[in-house]
Amino acid sequence: MIKKQENMSFNNHRASFFIVVGRVFRYAFQNILRNFGLAIITISILVLSLISVNTLLAVKSLTAAAVHAIEKQVDISVFFVPEATEKQVDEVRAYMAQFNSVTTVDVISREDALAAFKARHADNPEILKSLAVLETNPLGAIVVVHTKDAKDYKVILDSFEKQTQFNSIVQRRSFEDRGKIVERVEFLTARAQDGALGLAALFALIAVLIVFNAIRVAIYTQREEISIKKLVGATNGFIRAPFFIEGFVYVSVSVGIVAGIMHIATRYIDPFLGPLFSGGGFSLHATFFQNSGQLFGIELVALLAITWMTSVIAMRKYLQK
User: Hey, is 103 helix, strand or coil?
Assistant: First the structure.
């Protein structure tokens, strides 16, 4: 008998729980429908805020890819006189290879240098005629050096220039310094990031104000209902819950819309980015959506926390009555 009463009590509690949850969700969606225009405005502002943040992330990805592509093209080329022997060229190669910052040291033979020169000027018959007149190969070997970081080239070049024993065999040194280009790209990107960050902060502030006002309007239109609920014993948690759900709906819809927009936008932009990066292979869409679940999950939680804190502040005045 006791066990039967316990089961009935448990079932009654469970039924009461589902009734309360059902009412909370009903009140939440009633609030949204009552203030549908304000809900659309709120979601639009949240979408603009998230687009600003994601644009900032996209700019960072593009910058990293651009700087990497430029740094790959930086090198030191040491051009030898035609009379330099293979042993002398190998000594220079060994000297360059001793630096820890050096990743590769390639030697281009005289024959390969001549073949590359002819290929470069294949559409210029006058230059090719001039080469044909010469009885010997006028070009010397070339040593090409690549390092881990573009900043290491100047150190290596300064050190090499102090090695006077190589002066007689080296015709010239060419430092393809794209460091200034890298600095320029980073400078412009920093400005773009500052602009995007400022825009994101502005939209975030507007979003907070819009959400605050949306909740205040919803509470104001239901102030009599809230007073009645409190008179019949409704807890503050029961009164807050519909507004929290309302905020969750705003944020979830906003994040979903932004994910769709970023998916379409990055897919559209990708074909235009390919030619800008040597060797291709860069995809903004793949970079952006590699950890899309984590990215949009963080944005959802962060925006939800801001929305709920704003809701608590907006409701505090009415719940204290």
Answer: strand
